[in-house]
Amino acid sequence: MENTLAFPAGRPRDFVAIGRLCIDLNANEINRPMEETMTFTKYVGGSPANICIGMSRLGHRAAFIGKIADDQMGRFIRSYLHDNGIDTAGVTTDRTGAVTGLAFTEIKSPEDCSILMYRDNAADLLLAPEEVDEGLIAESKALLVSGTALAKSPSREAVLLALRYARKHGTKVVFDIDYRPYTWTSPEETAVYYHLAAEKSDIIIGTREEFDMLERFDGNAAHSDEVTAAQWFGCHAELVIIKHGKDGSIAYARDGGSHRGAIFPAKIVKTFGAGDSYAAGFLHGLMQGWSVARSMEYGSAAASIVISSHSCSDAMPTAEQVDAYIETSQHA
Ligand SMILES: Nc1ncnc2c1ncn2[C@@H]1O[C@H](COP(=O)(O)OP(=O)(O)OP(=O)(O)O)[C@@H](O)[C@H]1O
Ligand SMILES: O=C(O)C[C@@H](O)[C@H](O)C(=O)CO
């Protein structure tokens, strides 16, 4: 299954992400409920932030468009992005007293993990359309849109404007559906706004459940991956990737090709972070011009590295780490 995606050439930046910047507080006392957890380790979090950090770790010139709180957590996030080589010129600071979203993670067992979200008055959802830098998008080969940023205004309008800029400048749009129920008011609202983004996207990545959210009004009652792919090829999509957890992933191309990606073995600490690291590894491969199958393999290896780690952002691997993981796994 060949990679026919033609990312625009000759641009100063490879990748720009728009959306959530938050803080992960991952339980240190794992394999127990959060009621029994007394200490946490702080990491930068937020799905698009994790993916952007992953892309930068893999050697890409990356930037972020978002909003942080005017407090210690906001300053920590900005410093971390900067220290990881990410251009933060597009990250604005809220001046209204908004706070940083917190993601408390509970690791009851390697397979039983959950996230307790504190998202009231989160700064990231206050990103306004006039704060979206058209030049950042025009100068980038790809724009990553993370679905949760569509959950509330004015972030919703900011994302829709970013999509317009991307289409105007030929910047490839990657829509990571990223459904997090805590921010939405209803599944119907979610489906309507997800649709507006998916219709303008070149690559759509999501789990089966996330596509079901997106396609709520589209009659895919059988939850068919093939029906999902065909629907989005009718819009702008060139690639549709459906993630299936430990059962791997499947990719469909507009030209009719498809490929089922396997997983790599992992000494799982926690399962979350798999999607973000998979997306970073997969997009890295596509932007290198690799085949879809090899890109999926890279994403899967990156995912296994991150789910074998305590953090998401901190654990995002370099290309050398992914290469070594693949090499070791193939000889195991
Ligand atoms: N238990 C596992 N073992 C090995 N690889 C896994 C496992 N779970 C997920 N992966 C890999 O990560 C990819 C994405 O995982 P998943 O389908 O859970 O996405 P997600 O739900 O978006 O992840 P997240 O939990 O970060 O939200 C899978 O397609 C697979 O390649
Ligand atoms: O995206 C979120 O809000 C949660 C993330 O911060 C966390 O790292 C995670 O769940 C990654 O998938």
User: What Rg, in angstroms, do the CA atoms define?
Assistant: 18 Å
Strand content: 15-25%
Gross geometry = globular
At CATH level 2, the architecture is: 3-Layer(aba) Sandwich
Order of helices and strands: EEEHEHEEEEHEHEHEHHEEEHHH
Q: What small molecules are bound in this structure?
A: adenosine-5'-triphosphate, ligand LN3RO5KU
Biggest pleated sheet: 10 strands, mixed
Provide a descriptive summary of the structure in words:
This protein is of the alpha/beta class. The chain has a single domain (13-21, 47-98, 122-331), classed as UDP-N-acetylmuramoyl-L-alanine:D-glutamate ligase (3-Layer(aba) Sandwich), CATH 3.40.1190.20. Helices cover 35% and strands 23% of the residues. It contains ten helices and 14 strands. It has helices at residues 47-57, 72-83, 134-138, 155-169, 187-198, 208-214, 225-233, 274-288, 292-307, 319-331, and strands at 13-18, 22-27, 40-45, 62-68, 86-87, 91-93, 102-109, 112-118, 140-146, 172-176, 203-207, 239-243, 249-253, 258-261. Strands 1, 4, 5, 6, 9, 10, 11, 12, 13 and 14 form a ten-stranded mixed beta sheet that branches. α4 links the parallel β9 (140-146) and β10. α1 (47-57) packs across α8, α8 packs antiparallel against α9 (292-307) and α9 (292-307) crosses α10 (319-331). The radius of gyration is 18 Å and the shape is globular. The mean pLDDT is 96. Ligand LN3RO5KU binds next to β2, α1 and α8. It catalyses: 5-dehydro-2-deoxy-D-gluconate + ATP = 6-phospho-5-dehydro-2-deoxy-D-gluconate + ADP + H(+). Pathway: Polyol metabolism; myo-inositol degradation into acetyl-CoA; acetyl-CoA from myo-inositol: step 5/7. This is 5-dehydro-2-deoxygluconokinase. GO terms for molecular function: 5-dehydro-2-deoxygluconokinase activity; ATP binding.
